[in-house]
Write a structure and sequence with these properties.
It is a single chain. By secondary structure, the chain is of the alpha+beta class. The protein is built from eleven helices and ten strands. The strands form two sheets. Strands 4, 5, 6, 7, 8, 9 and 10 form a seven-stranded mixed beta sheet that branches. A hairpin with a 2-residue loop joins strand 2 and strand 3. The longest helix has 30 residues.
Amino acid sequence: MNLEKSIIATLSFFDVLELPLKAPQVRQFLIDTEASLESTQKMLDDLTREKKIECWYDYYSLVGRGRTLQNYLVERERVTKRYIGKVKRWRWLLALTPYLRGAFLVNSVAFGNLEKESDIDFLIITEKNRLWFTRVWLTLLTQIFGLRRHGQKVAGRFCLSFFASSAALNFEDLALKTASFPDLPQDPYLLYWIRTVKPVIGKQTYLDFQAANAWVKTYLPNLTSFRPETVGSEPTFLILLGRILETFLEVTFLGRLFEKIFQLTLKRRTLRKRDQLRDKTGTVITDTILKFHNQDWRRLIFDHWLERLNQETGVRRQETDK
């Protein structure tokens, strides 16, 4: 894909998310094209002069979308800042959780694209063979403190719907496989999702996660460096207390016992719920991954992206979804 097409494809994808991009972000997120910031900026200037894209206050977007996206951006940045402040205030709860190896902000909060009605999505990485215990522990504590999303209580609540074992950090098998397109990844949302996760707890786990997903570089070649800075300094003392509790659970074999009990009692129930869903692609229940999304928005995002590409460049579907 040449640089012009890559820029259009990148801006089209983020238009679906209603996010304009600055030049360094465009360069960083370029699809299937390696380019310097200088060459990216030059092409952005050329495309702007040719009115193929537009620029508002150093942010680039598709033509006719700049003012609208700017209005969204200001409010969403404000909401995102407020919700991340809430995460900082409650990160002690995550730090004290035994077997937790990483807690990452994902989806809209990681993109900086939250609305006031949004929840706060987490990816939780656990010690291997302690997936169910960690999930139950966090679910109970966040429920007790009024943090957990449930029912109609969504805005500003913690959404704990994605847990993964530290033994299964490579998410390539989770990518959608829908149809074939020239020069386009089939699951761009997952690629950006992996790259934009923000660590709250677990710098080293974050680095391990990015290393395990080095395959993303094939599609996003400019994403070569990762920034492990957490959301604020890590509460080292609280993490130590969580590890002491974890040691107690291991020495007394209670950790293993509770893991078996929770797995036996809850796995069957979650499988039944999954089987009742119309769209099952958003739900994954294995020994190493627990992902509970009643609807997988990635396919819809992909289709909207394709519509924009069709309007901007004439890219069309080559195969029907299977």
